[in-house]
Amino acid sequence: MRHRNPTPLTGPFSLASQKIKFQTFLWTAILLLIVPSIVWAAQVTLAWNPNQTRPDGYRLYQRTQGQSYNFSRPVWSGTGTTATITNLNEGTQYFFVVRAFVGSRQSGNSNEAAFIAASANRAPTANAGTDQTVSPSSRVTLNGSASKDPDGGTLTYTWAQTAG
Q1: Buried b (16+ CB within 10 A) or exposed e, 83-117
Q2: Which residues contact residue 149 at a Cβ distance below 8 angstroms, ignoring those fewer than 6 apart?
Q3: Of 65, 105, 109, 147, which sits most exposed with the smallest number of CB within 10 A?
């Protein structure tokens, strides 16, 4: 069996300049809104342009800041041109490259893409104290100091009378 050198990956691959596949993004956004999750794991979806000459497939490699790529262990391998990488550590910067392959031969690296896995912002819990029943024209003091932001953000308070 005769193998040819795979064509190097073509087209931009950087996150800033890559073409985001809108439909994939839209479905991912819908799934994230519809399917509640107790634990939010950071993830990224990467897309790249296919080679002009169709390879057997693509392999995606990742590294973190200060580390090298391990080209014997891709984090994803397949025939498509989109990959979602999950279970990324929040606050960590990741780098990715793709290689096309035909048989046991691989192309060189694509352009490197960088991604920082940000944490999901969780909703704060409002607590204005115990319920109060007061006479009309009475002075009422509300205190939101028992409210909490699970992400440690600064809270601000706004009060509005809704009835009475």
Answers
A1: bebeebeeeeebebbbbbbbeeebbebbbebebeb
A2: 122, 124, 155
A3: 65
Q: Model-level pTM?
A: 0.53
| Sequence-separated (6 or more) residues with CB below 8 Å from residue 79 | 56, 57, 58
Give the whole-angstrom CA distance, residue 31 versus residue 24: 11
**Closest alpha carbon to 78 in 62, 64, 94, 98:** 98
CB 143 within 8 A of CB 46: no
**One-letter amino acid of 2:** R
Q: Which amino acid is at 57?
A: G
pLDDT at 93 over 60: yes
